[in-house]
Amino acid sequence: GDSGPGRMSEPDDIVAAALALVERPRDLEDVSVVVSAGGTREPIDPVRFLGNRSSGRQGVAIARAAADRGARVTLVAAHLDADVVPDSRVEVIAVATADELGRAMDATAPDADVIVMAAAVADYSVASVSEHKLRKQDAPGGLTLELIENRDIVAGLVAARRDGQTIVAFAAETVRDDDDLLERARAKAARKGVDLLAANAVGWTRGFEVTDNDLVIVERGGDVVATASGSKDDTAHALLDAIVANRVR
Predict the structure, then answer these.
(1) Could you tell me the residue range of the domain that residue 194 belongs to?
(2) What mean pLDDT comes out for the span 88-99?
(3) Which is catalytic among the residues 52, 150, 200, 213?
């Protein structure tokens, strides 16, 4: 059958699990990891929303890589592209908006040893969501939307951080060059107070909706602890290497 007890796991999941047993270190054995992924969608009306181009591929890859390394993984998933499918070993909490994602992170964070905020979370939401589809005749000449600032989820997680908990944030930046990216990463890591920050350059043809990524990973003090290029599976494991190293310091 397609569902229910006895259903075989997806072949790709079986292969991934088998390879993980022989190829990957089990350095996150029984560690609780919470990862957020995907792009939030802020409703305008029942049909339209404010969103972003995040596919969720990097966050899903991090969740899968953590499971490969023995972690107990929860994935808080906003919108994911149709071809981005979470690993069957991962518990998935589906959310839509920034507020829903924030509440899911608040609920799962207290028991997490590692938190990775890889989701692309909207900075703003619509102040007044229409109960019906807005029509052109409702706003002749143009439509103005009032936006309100969403809460800073990472700041809340850092404020509530318990001893021994590692918090990792992401920064997707449009930049002039690598030096500009590093400067922004260092500033954001210090401002957010996270243990590690993974920064990547984004644009019309990079970062989002692609299978490869380039990351620079900095610690709170601004030191570069790793750089990574390649598939998002490869960069996921590079980030986890940095997380493991940070946890044992």
Answers:
(1) 11-126+142-247
(2) 98
(3) 52
